[in-house]
Amino acid sequence: MRLLTHNMLSSNIKGVVNGFPLRIEVEKVVEKQVDFNPDFLKNMFSKIEWKPLVDASRTMGYAELPEEAESSKLDSHDFLQRFHHALLELHLEEGALICPETGRRFPVNKVDPTLSYRRKLELKFPPIKSRRRTPKTITVPIIWRQPVASRSP
């Protein structure tokens, strides 16, 4: 699991008020080479919660990100390289995500990087900071109809 994904997840357990950021318990970290794309990084910068990214990268053994970052740093190639490495190249292969409020562990492993179905229901992606209006959720009732018996002449 990349730190990009980690930065978007929060706990969705019933009754949890503040389920972000999930703490990381590391067993195995792998670095995987990813093509460098400065435009992608510049677009993602405004959507990333910086402090949780810094804390998570330090937990995974990478301490090269500054404590605070402003959009003016996006002009620095060195900063973009460090941001790229932390966000996209560090992968948590074995470990757990831990709810900050309840302490519940969500295992992460190489075999099932998407977590189990039940665990997926308990984690959610918080709304992305954007200027666009988010659509309202609409509940549509499902009406099950009985099949019509075929008539024979």
Contiguous uncertain segments of 5+ residues: 140-146
Largest sheet: 3 strands, antiparallel
Oligomer state of the chains in this structure: single chain
Helix residue percentage? 25-40%
Major sheet strand order:
2-3-4
Provide the domain count.
Answer: 1
Order of helices and strands: HEEHHHEEHE
* CA-based shape: globular
β-strand number: 5
Q: In CATH's first tier, which class applies?
A: Mainly Beta
- N-to-C span: 62 Å
Remind me, CATH topology?
N-terminal domain of TfIIb
Provide structural commentary.
Interacts with TRM9. One of its GO terms (molecular function) is protein heterodimerization activity. With 153 residues, the chain is of the alpha+beta class. It has one domain: N-terminal domain of TfIIb. Helix content is 28%, strand content 17%. It is built from 5 helices and 5 strands. It has helices at 3-8, 38-45, 50-59, 77-89, 117-122, and strands at 10-11, 23-31, 90-98, 105-108, 123-124. It has a 3-stranded antiparallel sheet. A two-stranded antiparallel sheet has the order 1-5. Residues 140-146 have low confidence and may be disordered.
Please name the defining characteristics of this protein.
two-stranded antiparallel sheet; 28% helix; single chain; 5 helices; N-terminal domain of TfIIb
Write a concise synopsis of the structure shown:
With 153 residues, the protein is α+β, with helices and mostly antiparallel strands. Helix content is 28%, strand content 17%.
Describe the protein's topology:
Layout: H1 3-8, E1 10-11, E2 23-31, H2 38-45, H3 50-59, H4 77-89, E3 90-98, E4 105-108, H5 117-122, E5 123-124
